[in-house]
Amino acid sequence: MGSQDAQDSSLEKESWPSPVADLAERYRSEKAHSLHVTRLALGIFDRVASHLGLEAQDRSLLEIASLIHDIGYADHPANHAAHGADIALKEPIASITNAQRRCLAAILLLDSRKYEKGLDHPMMGTLKCRERAMRIAALLRVADGLDHGRLQDAQIASVRKIYGKLRLTVRTFYRGNIERAQEKADLWERVFRLPVDVVAAEDTDDTDPLFRLVSSSLPLVENARRILQLEYRGIADNRQAALDSDDPEGIHELRVSIRRFRAGLRLVKDAIPAKAFCPINEGLRVLRDDLGAIRDRDVWLAFLSEKGKQDGAEFAEFTATQQPGEGERRRLIKDRLSDRAYSALSRRIEYLLRTELPRHQPDVRRSFEQTAARRVQRLLRQIARTPQPASPEATEDIHEMRRLFRRARYWADFSAPVLGKPVVRLERRLRRTAGMLGDMHDRAVFLDRLSGGPVDAPAALKEATQAEHLSLWVDFVQYWPKLRKELKRCAKALREA
Length: 497
Known about the structure:
The chain has 2 domains: 2-146, Hypothetical protein af1432, CATH 1.10.3210; 209-496, CHAD domain (Alpha solenoid), CATH 1.40.20. It is 72% helix and 4% strand. It has 22 helices and 3 strands. It has a 3-stranded mixed β-sheet. Helix 5 packs antiparallel against helix 6 (98-109). The chain starts with a helix and ends with a helix.
């Protein structure tokens, strides 16, 4: 783990290579990602060049292309490949000829999501180095895919030719890197006529990603970028899972990812440009709430299904009245996760993480460790001062307490790598309590549904739900005084650290 931390720290502190330094700075390229992709691309090149007929001058051009492959993003996010090619054609780059410049522009065009779009560009029709550009772009596309998560965690373990295929074995904790690299190997297979299998190394470290990404040796802004980038990948991946499957867990995991991102945003608020914080935070809140109605129905139906297993005959008629119309759930999910509001929000988050945040210089001079300790201890004191809800029927008070515990749990999770074992233990207790409050709140909502619906619910179902509700309340009342003391002790320790 120490070597990974050292590598990650060096990427954050490393300077741009001199041939592209001025260009990359003026066009606000994402340094950590670009440097990491360059290392991956050159690592692949050095392992396959002799087998694929690549030359030394191809390596030099691959290096420059890798360093500036996203140079068009800051000014034109939606069409950054074409804009990057325009920049390469008009801006001076030391040590390359005009012919190489045209080849470089073609490589950038071919790094778009669909390389066919680049091949259709008018410039490609008259390009003398077309085949060379395609060979170099094939390597760049795979390397770029290996940092799809923009977490700079992927490392090449080996490259071997096995049974007529090239097997690229990679160590990475983010599975999406492997999937995207495999997708972007399409040009490779077309150019080299050699199928590629991108696979995860068997010895990939299973350490919690946050412990590999977050470090007290990194500035506040860089730790903020890493935390939020990790959580944003969760949002994007779980959104796709929710669209692709009818499994109710898809929506649940998506809402968890949204909550975690918002919690991270609030934890590192001092590092976030003010113009980005409010629209992103509010946009995610609206999205979470919109998906909440779908999730609430999923939880309700799962509850009825479980109860129905115990006495299917009695509950079958009632359960049937609670089912949504055919296809209604799928339509609601597709409409909300594919609308313009979601697309705009996603683009805004990506722009923050890729362009604004890496270059932001906040007024606050505290480290991430100091910021996290300060915010966590204040939140713990707030929770410890919160009065116990008056009764199990105080639904809003229980729900608000649950939100506080959940936020504290996420903050403890994010800060554990720098605040240590006491916060790791605290996270487990906060998670347990948030779960307890969540179950209690769900039972209260169930009781409202059972009592206020147009169809009378079975009396036995009402009685069983009421008993569960009261049991959870008793457990919480007995647990709360002990937990409150522990929260105060932990807050004091953080304040004095």
